[in-house]
Structures are given as structure tokens and as C-alpha cells.
Amino acid sequence: MICDLAQYYNIYNYEQLAFNKLAVFVFGLPNDSRIKKKISGLKVDLNTVMTAGVLDRLSMILYSLAGSKGSEKPETLASILLGNKKTKEKKPNGYVSGKEFEKRRQEILKRIGENNGK
User: What DSSP line would sit under the chain, residue for residue?
Assistant: First the structure.
């Protein structure tokens, strides 16, 4: 709220204001202010969600026209932004130690060697 008051009204020391006056300023903040997004539970502003909705519709049209039978429908960006869908998290591809890396490397090389012999 402090950042919003500073950004929109150039109020840097809000503690000197009367509570009623401060409430009027906060109530008058635009919908894309940080505090209003926090209260409404949105992570992004409405324009971003609307733009994502347009992109989602276009993606679905292209998916339909391509006749992509058997493939998954494209994920909707708007639902990800609104928090309705979880994105698939990939496991990090790394090793804790050099020994772990060498062990896995030997397993892969062994498997490749077995497949080349067939």
C-alpha cells in the first residue's frame, strides 16, 4: 500500500494523514494497483488476463484447424495466470556430486554399448 500511495499520489509519509483521508486515497487507487490486485487475489492485471484469453482462443482455433487428433490441447495461459491450472514442473537435471555423475555416466555408456551390440 505504501508503494501504491507513493506511485499514484506522491504520498511518502502516509502516517501524517488522518485515517479517513488515507482511506479515501486507498479506496481511489486503480484496479491495477498492487494492493487491489492483492485483495482480489490476482497476480496480474486485467489487461494481461484479457490478452492471454485472446491468445488462448487463437491457439484453440489453430489447434482445431490443424486437426491435431491424438495430441493434447494447448494449455490456456489465462488459467495459468489466474492460478486455476498448475504448470508441470520438470525435475532438475543435475547431480549432487562428481561421483554420482560418473556412476550415472557409466550406466548410460553400458546401456548404449548393450544396444549397439544387438
Answer: -HHHHHHHH--S-GGGS-HHHHHHHHHTS-TTSHHHHHHHT-SS-HHHHHHHHHHHHHHHHHHHHHT-TTSPPPPPHHHHHHTSSPPPPPPP---SSHHHHHHHHHHHHHHHHHHHH-
